[in-house]
Amino acid sequence: MPLSAIRLLSLLPLLAGAVAGALFLLPGLSDGTSAYAAIASVEVLLPLVGLGVLLGQLPGRWAMASMLCMVLGNLAGFWYRETVYGWMAPVPGAAPHLFLAGPIACALVGFALILSPRFRPVVCLPVFALAGIALATATRLGDPVLFAEHYRWSAPLLQALTILSIAWPASQIQNTGFTIATRIGGSWMLAVALLYGGAFLAGRETQLAPPDFPPLPPSFASEALVR
After folding, report:
1. Around Cβ 33, how many Cβ atoms within 10 Å?
2. Is 128 left (phi over 0), alpha (psi -120 to 50) or beta?
3. Which of 41, 74, 134, 172 is deepest in the core (most CB within 10 A)?
4. Dihedral, CA atoms, 134, 52, 70, 68, nearest 10 degrees?
5. How far is it, in rounded angstroms, from Cα 35 to Cα 25?
6. What local confidence, expressed as pLDDT, does residue 12 receive?
């Protein structure tokens, strides 16, 4: 087993303990609301894993700039969420499915992962910024109590911790096999995003709707007014 893989396996218990400790330290447990909701859905967790792997394979300065872009994008997604909703509202079937925030973030991350490591720094800044906006949209709409004050900062904090906990061991693996594996994983993420989002769009007409009531005859309407 190569040394990088041994380092990865040795770090996994430490990272799991750090994430578990952060979950219990974050507020919201007393009122029945937990920050678990920020990473509990596939729409959020899958892009977070991809962002962590991508961040771990970037050079130092690009990794710091990318994380900063994600934070700024996340803040913009929270502050200008109504504008984001307006952009996505015309898309058929988007509103009932968190405005397709999960598939969009997953497609962005998958596209960045399938690129050669030489070209990833070119696209990492816009990818992290747009993914931050998409994750903010999914997080805000997935708020279990809608207006919990702590959720506005605890959810992004937990998401950032999840990304960093994956990026740290990913940065320790420097071999061609892991790079190829991440590119294959990126193609899977892109395919999942397209299939997942396409299923939402294709299934928009399958929901049952109540039939239109026929208009009342004039005689019935006049009798009702007399009574």
Report:
1. 17
2. alpha
3. 134
4. 180
5. 10
6. 53
Q: pLDDT of 59-100, one tens digit each?
A: 888 888 888 898 898 888 888 777 777 777 666 666 656 667
State yes or no: pLDDT of 10 exceeds 50.
Answer: no
Q: Which residue type does 168 have?
A: W
Alpha-helix residue ranges (DSSP H) falling in the chain: 3-25, 42-56, 60-79, 81-88, 101-114, 120-141, 151-171, 176-202, 218-226
If you average pLDDT over residues 25-51, what whole number do you get? 66
**Exposure letters 86-109 (e unless 16+ CB within 10 A, then b):** eebeeeebbeebbbbbbbbbbbbb
Grouping H, G, I as helix, E, B as strand and the rest as coil, residue 213 is coil
Domain residue ranges of the chain, discontinuous segments joined by +:
43-198
- The two tokens of residue 167 are 């990026």
* Cβ–Cβ under 8 Å, residues 50 and 107: no
Contacts of 45 (CB under 8 A, 6+ apart): 39, 162
From the list 61, 197, 48, the residue with the least C-alpha distance to 131 is: 48
- Binning pLDDT at 50, 70 and 90, where does residue 148 land? low
